Amino acid sequence: MGASWDEAWRWLAALWPHLTAMAIFLLSVAASVHAILVKRDTRSTIGWVGLIWLSPGVGSIAYALLGVNRIRSRASQLRAGRIRVTHELEPAVAPLDRLESAIGPEGSPLRSLATLVGNVTDRPLVDGNAIQLLAGGDEAYPQMLAAIDAATKSVALASYIFDNDPTGRIFADALGRATARGVDVRVLIDGIGSAYTWPPITRTLAARGVKAARFLPTTVPFYFPYANLRNHRKIMVVDGRIGFTGGLNIRDGCWLAHEPAHPVRDTHFRLEGPVVAQLLEVFAEDWAFAAEETLDGPAWRPALEPAGEMLARGIRFGPDDPDIGRIKLVLVGALAAAQKRVRIMTPYFLPDDAIFQALDVAAMSGVTVDIVLPEENNLALVGWASDGVLWQVLGRGCNVWMSPPPFEHTKLMVVDGAWAMFGSGNWDERSMRLNFEFNVETYDRDLAARLDERIAGVIARSRRRTLEEMDRRSLPVRLRDGVARLLSPYL
Question: pTM, whole model, 2 decimals?
Fold first, then answer.
């Protein structure tokens, strides 16, 4: 019996290296097939396949841990089967003659851009809108609070950050009053953004009878700005008729008249007209996902009556987008449509190579490209990484302007004084790939002119950054920025 066991162990000892080699070979084949079929970027595919075969076993494990896009996979799984809300907007869709008079004839740059965005979003460009520019919380918060106090049917409010501070409690009181008089109120706060203050505002809302939900609550530390799959949208819709959206969170730092310790400048917008229905569509979908409640009935029916003469369209985007992502296609299309000038404001600037190339092509084609960034970033790591990539636009003729404090959180893009886009999305991979965002595009020269003026005012008090300045950075600073840049896909 002992001899039989010894013989079996000798047989296994001789066989296990072959079995291990076969397992590693099959694992390498499986990882390579996955990379070839899934990876869209050829250089990335070649790099991963090379690592898989040059480092047998280790390369396959590294690919499984780092090479598989679990963000998009998880987002798709989480949102699979979600209720898709689409309102009937046919009566508000701009006819061809209206498009030609407002945007240009078929084949003109902006007309082609409108076609592109329509194909990307699968939502119509609607007419009859009025959009008002609001300078931060000082102008936006009073109007938002007045709209809540005047609500008769419904209030839908979504915010990434809703702090339990003096401003947050003012909003909680207004929402509580609306609930008390029979208005249907729903408040959606991101799971990370709701925890920036303690106790969270959700307790205050619950005490006032307000129905609130958190979007993907997590157990990570209370301050974790680099978490993925966040609902970064800022949307408020009152009675299906008045909408607010832009970059403004609900926190005391954005109400400069309150003299906060950490002031933040921002830009928000009040919308009326059929485009408000597209804001409500996105809120209703997010609420159904987070709270498992379908918003239906007369209180949640949008008003489609015209309120002005602006053409506008909502653009939803996030980690569940197909392929390259909606907003990247829109940005590249807008830059390609530019003939004279592009102006961009964003607090976080870490785009991918495709966006960098589109910016460079526009500048080298004779288009004036102005990019306005904050001199002092509230996220130091992002600021360092941004410094590490600015050479890609400075060396091709783009102008980069550093705005002085207070921190500028505005997100704007204006093309040729005729097309503008605003909303919650930043010019970084976090907004374009990892978080759920909402922007609005408009084709209105008056609004574009006001936004151009807003950006020009910031440029007038900003410092111009040059390629020579970036080249003069000390070695430790360049090394710091270069290391931070390596993390740019996740910042």
Answer: 0.86
